Amino acid sequence: MAYEYTTPQGYAVKDAGRRIVVDPVTRIEGHLRCEVNIDDNNVITNAVSCGTIFRGIEIILKGRDPRDAWAFVERICGVCTGTHALASVHAVENALGIEIPDNANIIRNIMHLCLMYHDHLVHLYHLAGLDWVDVVSAAKADPKATSELSQKLTPWPNSSTGYFKSIKDRLTRIIESGQLGIFTNGYWGHPAYKLPPEANLLVVAHYLEALDFQKDMVQIHTIFGGKNPHPNWLVGGVPCSLNIDAHGAADVINQERLELVLQLIERCRTFAQQVVIPDTVALAAFYKDWLNIGGGLSKLSVLAYGAIPDTANDFSDKSLLLPRGAIINGNFNEVLPVDLHNPEEIQEMVTHSWYKPYPNGKAGLHPFDGITDPHYAPGPNIKGTSTNLKQVDERDKYSWIKTPLWRGHQMEVGPLARLLVGYAKKDTEIKGLVDDFLGQTKAPVAALQSTLGRIAARSLELAWSADKMRYFYDKLIANLKNGNKSTANTKLWKPESWPTGVLRGVGFTEAPRGALGHWITIKDRKIENYQCVVPTTWNGAPRSPDGQLSAYEASLMGTHMAVPNQPLEILRTLHSFDPCLACSTHVIGPDGSNLITVRTDNCF
Fold first, then answer.
1. In the β-sheet with 364-365, what is the strand arrangement from edge to edge?
2. 411 vs 587, more confident
3. Strand 403-406 and strand 346-349: pairing?
4. CA distances (Å), origin 286, targets 46, 107, 191, 578
5. pLDDT at residue 384 above 80?
6. 130 DSSP assignment
7. Which segments of 54-131 does DSSP mark as H helices, in order?
8. CA 574 to CA 579: how far, in whole Å?
9. Contacts of 483 (CB under 8 A, 6+ apart)
């Protein structure tokens, strides 16, 4: 039965007209289903975001040694390698009152910034890029004209006519073979693509260069963390030794290894300024209309926990290089403080999620008291087969994602939220990056609150991350020259020295996709409770009990679709968040039978 209502955020939701299902949304981490209703003018009047997998790592952790938690939670995601581990070690250190050496803080920051850079690079070119770049059109480009365009935009050396001809020839062979490989199933020729062939060829060339470069730059993780993905971490510090005078020692980071780190950092900085930023400015020039589409909650309520402490063991606003704060109801003149220990601020709801209701009639729980008790009970409209799925019923339970609220509000998190909070707080570096970008694109600040604004925010943060890696590298070298080689606090290694009683701790950071928090309760030196609220929990949540739309859902409202059965506009906006749901998890019954099967045919 069709319905309509106005959400507390002011969105007029109408569940009427044609229903379009995109399942699964690909080029993301995990499994996401999206359903929208469109009116007679092909404008979205209702949007539903459905997480179709269950993450049970919190349950697995109960009863384990808290020092081991990082190794489990790091496996929540295979894309943002290390960010969950970092939040976990912060949480345990917070609970136990453990301080870490300055070098450990520096190395953690370099590893985290490396992750941010890598994740944003892969997102821009390989996950979201194909929503804006028509690969087949690139094969029609004039290599000479592409060379001239490249040299006009950037001093990047790979810009000769011969270079772009070689890229065009590779593309032509792939297209003529009929085996497009990674480019299969694209909506090539869709009227929403606006780049001319020469610009398409330019970005496709950078797509291939970024594909090569991303595997080189993660050597920073392998040097400090031993491997990538999922580098090693350590409660109390970092698991590596430093000695610039060591020779031939495989287990010590010496001058030669540090020189390699410096080379990689400088390559990151150059690629950011000469490739990523110019490409982003070019996209904004050709897709100006998308600077006014998909704003959603970024115009209303955004949240950032803050990250990258400049001073070891100091998580105050003064120390965090990525600012912390919350903005609600569109009041960007006031940035509210954030306290992750305060039960009045964050509450997780399960009204529309496949979990058992909380005891004692509680509508929401703070993560310290969080309960993860799965109960898959689909409404009558979700039944079907893999080839005949009916729509979900958003008035019932329809997602494995819980609904976190900050002071009762659905919030958007991520690079754009961080940028908006930093800009509102008048952070000098963030404001400088934003103003420079807006100057190049001749757009107002409000234009960032859009689908393309999220893309731009990632590019700006990528460049910022590269510069901050160099900043912390210089601090590390200065410490080593002064004889400071300490990388770990060994006090933690004797559990009998830990404080007694029930201990609670919060670990927070900013993952590439947004605010990430881990809450731990330790009892008798074992994990009693563990809860994670990840960025996609915020952005991809189902509706709140009072009908508020989440960031994904709100951002799709009012979007016009040129070709409804080729939902490129839906993909553009959803990909701008870089959705990340837990991977490799299956919903099964007690007898091992599938409870739900998702369709994977004819989707891109």
1. 364-365, 346-349, 403-406
2. 411
3. antiparallel
4. 28, 40, 13, 22
5. no
6. G
7. 57-61, 69-73, 83-96, 102-122
8. 7
9. none
